[in-house]
Amino acid sequence: MVKHKDTFSPVPHTHKDDQKLFANPEFKRAWDALEEEYAALSELFQARKEAGLTQEQVAVIMGTTKSAISRLESSIRSDSHSPSFSTLRKYANACGKKLLIKMV
Questions:
Q1: CA end-to-end span of the chain
Q2: CB contact set of 26 (below 8 Å; sequence gap of 6+)
Q3: Which of 12, 47, 54, 70 could disulfide-link to 95, CB 3.0 to 4.6 Å?
């Protein structure tokens, strides 16, 4: 039996690296295109945090599984599946919140 040892090797990252990336117009467009998805994901996490709930607790309240909540929280950034308003409403309600959609 071969034993595999995982090691952690952080990649150094500096502010100069960010400047180089954002100087690239294609990178900047791609980054800006993700703004709405990351804002939505941040709202989900913030609602759950404010409610003091784990993914498992939200799942129980919604009548689903922890893995479904995990997929929901990661699906915001996915082009393959977007959560329905009904699902987002249930998530908000489970966290003691109300779903509010605005266009600005």
A1: 59
A2: none
A3: 47
Task: Tell me which DSSP letter residue 34 carries.
Answer: T
User: Do 62 and 90 form a contact (C-beta atoms < 8 A)?
Assistant: yes
CATH of domain 15-94: 1.10.260
With beta carbons less than 8 A apart as the criterion, state whether 83 and 72 touch: yes
Q: Do residues 69 and 62 touch, judged by C-beta distance below 8 A?
A: yes
pLDDT (tens place) for every residue of the chain, 104 residues total: 556 667 777 778 777 878 888 899 998 898 888 888 888 888 999 999 999 999 999 999 999 999 999 988 887 665 667 788 999 999 999 999 999 988 78
83 touches 44 (CB < 8 A): no
String of DSSP letters for 39-96: HHHHHHHHHHHHHT--HHHHHHHHTS-HHHHHHHHHHTT-SS----HHHHHHHHHHTT
